[in-house]
Amino acid sequence: MRISLLDRSRTRAGESDAQAIATTVERAIRADSLGFHRFWTAEHHAVPGIASAAPTVLASTIAARTQRIRVGTGGVMVPNHSPLVIAEQALLLEALYPGRIDLGLGGSLGFTAPVRRALGRTGLDDGEYPSQVEELRDYLTGRAGVTVRPSVPPPPMYLLAIRDGLSLAARLGLPAVIGGPVVNDAAAIDGYLHHFRPSAELAAPYLIVNVDISVADSPERAQDVLLPEAWAFADSRDVGEFRALRPVEEVTRLLADERRPKKVDAVRSWLAAAISGTPVQVAASLAELLERTGGSEILANVSAFDRKDVTRTDEFLASLHS
After folding, report:
1. 150 preceded by cis ω (within 30°)?
2. How far is residue 137 CA from its own chain's centroid?
3. How far is 293 from 303, CA to CA, in rounded Å?
4. Coil, helix or strand for 143?
5. Which tens digit of pLDDT belongs to each residue from 264-289?
6. I need a surface site. Which of 61, 182, 249, 304 has the fewest CB within 10 A?
């Protein structure tokens, strides 16, 4: 089972953004020593609970502090940047750390309307995102009218299943990353696997499955570990912010006092989509997930208020990795 990690630099209540970034780097160093395949960083702009806004900058620091693990972006949101600049940053990373860089790409806009206005992107025209991805690909492969520097072999591109990213990945012959509701969208997954067009980059479809995971001594404890992330997700719908993680005990009290059943239902729905349990249960669930989706790799979100719980789950996942 090939397993990799996605770290969004989540903040905890009472913790600074700088601390969250520092612990992301520390976790990547540990992931390298544990033998994980890749470690990806994320792009989130002006989100209170997420400290990472510039994944290429963070990836560069992580690559400098590690030896073997592949390092990448999960992902760069293409509409927020010029394709030329994305290509330049990716090639610079590849020149610095040859053979260890991944370029994960997505099509999301900013989290809120003020952020979207600040980024200069309040919407996308039909076909704009696919054309941006193809333009970026042309820069990376030397097919564009402008020669991008440094001139090195390009890192591999991965498309997140955002804005019809699966069908675009199939048409361009690129590996794809699915997560959230798409994991259970059999039609979308089958469309990618069956309509994939081999390319110079990839001869056969390659699907990475992103999922939230927690491992503990009991199923109940494993689910409790996930409560802070589940609450932050449900709460974001009401407050318009993805806030810092709160302690499990505090979230439990909030859920007991919550008089809005929709928020409680949202927490339950989030937990149901995650994989949690004892080591034996989680191993079986991950194997089933890969078989059901036709996935080749797990990209794990491991988010908990107590970082010891993150470390425990990472160490278990590393024992499954091959």
Report:
1. yes
2. 21
3. 23
4. coil
5. 899 999 999 999 999 999 999 999 99
6. 249
Q: Which residue has the tokens 């003020």?
A: 114
Region 3-215+275-320: CATH code: 3.20.20.30
Cβ neighbors of 133 (< 8 A, separation 6 or more) are 78, 83, 105, 159, 168, 172
pLDDT band at 168 (very low <50, low <70, confident <90, very high): very high
- Per-domain residue ranges of the chain: 3-215+275-320
The answer to whether the beta carbons of residues 178 and 158 sit under 8 Å apart is no
Closest alpha carbon to 93 in 45, 148, 52: 148
Three-state DSSP class for 157? strand
- The DSSP code sequence of 188-246 is HHHHHHHH----SS-SS--EEEEEEEEE-SSHHHHHHHHHHHHHHHHHHHHHSS-PPB-
How far is residue 70's CA from residue 94's CA, in Å, rounded to a whole number? Answer: 11
Number of alpha carbons in the 13 Å side-chain half-sphere of residue 133: 30
pLDDT for res 172:
97
pTM: 0.95
Query: Could you tell me the CA-to-CA distances from 47 to 5, 10, 17, 21, 242 in Å, in that order?
Result: 21, 10, 11, 14, 6
